TrEMBL record:
Signal peptide: none annotated. The lineage of its organism: Bacteria, Pseudomonadati, Pseudomonadota, Gammaproteobacteria, Pasteurellales. Residues 183-306 form the Alcohol dehydrogenase-like C-terminal domain. Residues 32-145 form the Alcohol dehydrogenase-like N-terminal domain. One of its GO terms (molecular function) is metal ion binding. It comes from Rodentibacter rarus. This is L-idonate 5-dehydrogenase. NCBIfam families: PRK09880.1. Its cofactor is Zn(2+).
Amino acid sequence: MKIKTLSCVVKRAENVGIIEQDVQYDDGDQYQTLIRLSRGGICGSDLHYYQHGKVGNFAVKHPMILGHEVIGRIIKTNSPNLRINQKVAINPSKPCHSCKYCLSGEINQCETMRFFGSAMYNPHVDGGFTQYKVVDNTQCIPYPEDIDDEIMVFAEPLAVAIHAAKQGGDLKGKRVFISGVGPIGCLVVASVKALGAQDIICTDISQRCLNLALEMGATKVLHANDDFSEYAQHKGEFDVAFEASGHPSSIERCLEVTKAKGTIVQIGMGGNLPNFPLMTLIAKEINWKGSFRFVEEFNTAVNWLASNKVNPLPLLSATFSFKNFEDALKTAGNKNDISKVQIIFS
């Protein structure tokens, strides 16, 4: 079965377009499903590929389809657990299932992970900003017909947030500090609240983001230029801090306000920290943990969205047709006014 499809691609920094491709589905292939994509969300990594032609050290060397926050309907499948026309959220992770991390259940650490829309390998791994895509059956997570697509597109970023929240341990009754409340930080707010956090204090340089954090469940918000000294008393006031900006000053503040023997979960990606306050980390015996993508939390995210345990819609800023892909990317790049931008494919 061969289908002509239009795909949104990035060729190099600030060079995007729509190309026509063939998508082939073979009934004889094991464990595969053909999806007609309906919606996708633009992520920060998509913007990095568009604006800079790379994410970290992974540069775009040839045309690559972007996108890893996508949902759609099943066109064809050989899975007994899936059905034609069923709505599914697409897990963009395709681990090898054979390395030591996959075998121990830590698939987000897979040594050869093939993640949608990534230039890590050459040839690159195409993403989901396309009309049709063949995926593994296990990447398809069904959700109810009556759940709006604009809600379920948040499954992937919510999965990232839930995984980060769980890195903080048992949050029931805990005081939580979140530094950096862009889309992921705001979804962390909703996640830690759903997991039982008692107080959720947030900070950011953007008042718009702080207002969104309140809508997502924050107890109190503070501008990054405010005085945090009361929270630094007695070696810190918070049981767990989530650093979601990657800025050195934000990391330092988290170290100041997290209590001795507390936990800091590092989500934000920044550069090197030549003046890192290592002595504070040591003296307060802080647990500093990284958080990367997700494991079973993708399924959890689908369930939470389907049951309205988390409402992500305050974060949705704009919607575009995929034919206006570059306009969508430019709009998403306006961080002063925009949180999340979605693209409609069908």
